[in-house]
Design brief:
Helix content is 40%, strand content 15%. It is built from 8 helices and 8 strands; from the N terminus they run αββααβββαβααββαα. A 6-stranded mixed sheet has the order 1-3-2-6-8-7, sandwiched between helices. The protein has a two-stranded antiparallel ribbon with strand order 4-5. Helix 3 packs across helix 8. Pfam families: UDG.
């Protein structure tokens, strides 16, 4: 395993004070820590068992998640479910959440197009992600994409060179770095898409192997 000497805003000492996920979710319902709450339909908090051994952290809810109020229920979420199954990892064993809890988008007619959260928005929402980590205390966190990597490990850790590696921030759960499943949906070339999908499943399988050690 590689060692990550630094860590990101979600691993700072300051986070929401809660002893259960239900309590934390209720606290988050009125969140105004950044401006994203003004246009989002609702906050989309994490879901899963408080005793989950593995935590999956994505970027932010998308259009489908914003409407439904649940994480990873859109196209990327459905693909994640399939890849988790192929990797031998039951989603029910995981706690699934995002680095940012409100949907950031640009309106284009009737459509709402995803817009990447900025550093300030990620840092402010790390208040909640850090609290989720403190409550769940997972054995392993899977960082899905660059935003999750930044929130957990800071700006000096980059996705591409660390992809597939398990990094170990001091006094915090280890973090497996991989892509966000939405990346796979954007690949047009079939052979490249198949190769990247196989690599993603291999990354997820590392989480299974880690749990077995």
């Amino acid at each position: 395993m590689n060692v990550a000497p630094k860590f990101g805003p979600a691993f700072t000492l300051e986070s929401a004070d809660a002893t259960s996920l239900d309590q934390l979710s209720r606290q988050a319902e009125g969140c105004t820590r950044c401006e994203l709450y003004k246009n989002a339909t609702q906050i989309v908090f994490g879901e899963g068992s408080q005793k989950a051994e593995i935590m999956l952290v994505g970027e932010q809810p998308g259009d489908k998640e914003d409407i439904a109020g649940h994480p990873f229920v859109g196209p990327a979420g459905r693909l994640l479910d399939v890849c988790l199954e192929e990797a031998g990892l039951d989603r029910s064993r995981c706690y699934v959440t995002n680095a940012v809890k409100h949907f950031k988008f640009e309106p284009r007619g009737k459509r709402r197009l995803h817009s990447k959260p900025n550093a300030g928005e990620i840092q402010r929402c790390s208040w909640w992600l850090g609290a989720e980590i403190n409550v769940v205390r997972p054995n392993l966190i899977v960082a899905l994409g660059a935003t999750a990597v930044y929130s957990l490990l800071g700006s000096k850790v980059k996705l591409t060179p660390e992809r597939g590696h398990i990094l170990t921030p001091e006094n915090h759960p280890p973090v497996l770095v991989t892509i966000h499943p939405s990346f796979l949906l954007r690949i047009r070339e079939k052979e490249d898409a198949a190769r990247q999908r196989a690599n993603f499943i291999q990354d997820l399988h590392r989480a299974v192997q880690y749990q077995g050690n």
